[in-house]
Amino acid sequence: MALATNATLIRAIGRPLRRFAPILSVAGIVVVTRYDDVREVLERDEDFTIAEINSAPMDRINGPFILSMDRSTHYSRERSILQSCVQPQDPARIRSTVRAVTAELLARRPRGRLDVVQDLARPAALRLAGDYFGLPGPDPVTMMRWTRALFREAFLNSGGDRDARRAALHAAAEFHAYADELIARRLAMLSTGTPAPDDFLTRLIRLRDDPRTRLSPEGIRRTLGGVVVGAIEPTSKVTAQAVERLLRHGCALRRARDAALDGDTDLVRRYALEAQRFNPLTAAVVRHTARDTVLAAGTPRQRRIPAGRKVYAALLPAMFDPAAFPDPGSLRGDRPASRYLSDGHGLHRCFGRYVNDVQVTELIAALLRLDGLRPAPGRPGRIRYDGPFPDRLLVEFGQGRAA
Ligand code: HEM
């Protein structure tokens, strides 16, 4: 199994690294594993930058997007454009959409067995992309192919795998043609006063009335495209990994299930965050060292990092640092939510947190409410990966063995 998807191995390697080489520099790469140091790297966004890491792949498949921009007026403008499309009632709206979609998807699987990835998490995230973001895709299969290929190329193909790149370029061309047409149609509706759905796309277009927030149709496409590509696979991956993890922790599973049955959404969310800590979306985020600098200054582990080094801020090992997460191997629902790093930290911390808090929690709660939820026996009861993406996780519920 690839290191990137083997959280158990990463946790095991993280332990001696945190202890004996917390800022490890080898072959032009620096790996940072202690909680405070990971936060420091991500807070010092002018010393440890992102454009050198993300802009080339992002430009290839989408065009500039905030996750490929360093701190600048351009970055602030584009992030505030996104923020102005979010309204206070959105979390409630997202919750009711996810609940309705989840109930519908689960009702289709009455036989006591389901695939968390293909039957639930991916289709649910896709439906939210249509309902809330306004980008449903031509059909679910095509949209899933596009978003998976684009996400892989944007964030996970630093080795330049040729097949992955070819698939992404192909997907990008198809996706751009589809999105350009969708945006042109919506622009025409709005300019003629035809009623349009209140979704992210309409809100982005309405911002055009203000010259400070006016995006060209191409700007709308790369902004909305970046958000939707960043939304679907991560939701599915994190949900599957968190469920797999909870199913292995009997005591935590029972408590999380009771919370789901009692309607204690906040406690389910805490268990969801805690389960992600064991296997987050990404084990590390990467930055470029913009200038010679010192990390962890004034501590016994302080280290000079020369300009040009790639720095891996290792989120997963940092969330097993006992200094920040006492008794890190226990899965508990009472840790402070602000401690987690699963959705990043600092300038680029996930924009979609208000979505994840609701969507991932609701998906997991719906599964926990299934009577006697358990992994399917044998290998199907463990996640099968397609590269970095969970592709299957079979669970069973109800009495007896599923047919
Ligand atoms: C549970 C699912 C998700 C997880 C675990 C997750 C995780 C992350 C992480 C770790 C980062 C920071 C990357 C870095 O620092 O290099 C990030 C950034 C981002 N995420 Fe998410 N994400 C999720 C879902 C979403 C969703 C649903 C959206 C859209 C609403 C979204 C939009 C973004 C955007 C736009 C950024 C860039 C923020 C910036 O550069 O300022 N993500 N996400």
User: Looking at CATH, which topology would you report?
Assistant: Cytochrome p450
CATH architecture: Orthogonal Bundle
The overall number of domains is: 1
Note the gap between the termini: 30 Å
Provide the gyration radius in Å: 21 Å
Report the uncertain regions: none
Total count of helical runs of at least 4 residues:
14
- Based on secondary structure, the structural category is alpha+beta
Can you tell me about this structure?
This protein has 14 helices and twelve strands. The protein has a single domain, classed as Cytochrome P450 (Cytochrome p450, Orthogonal Bundle). It has 403 residues and is of the alpha+beta class. The protein has helices at 7-20, 35-43, 51-61, 73-84, 90-107, 116-133, 140-155, 162-191, 200-206, 217-247, 250-262, 265-278, 315-318, 353-368, and strands at residues 23-26, 29-32, 48-49, 113-115, 285-289, 293-295, 303-305, 310-313, 374-375, 384-386, 389-392, 394-396. The protein binds protoporphyrin IX containing FE. Protoporphyrin IX containing FE (HEM) binds at residues 66-67, 79, 227, 230-231, 234-235, 238, 281-282, 285, 342-344, 348, 350-352, 355-356, 360. This is Cytochrome P450. Belongs to the cytochrome P450 family. GO terms for molecular function: heme binding; iron ion binding; monooxygenase activity; oxidoreductase activity, acting on paired donors, with incorporation or reduction of molecular oxygen.
Structure keywords:
single chain; 403 residues; five-stranded mixed sheet; three-stranded antiparallel sheet; 14 helices; 10% strand; binds protoporphyrin IX containing FE
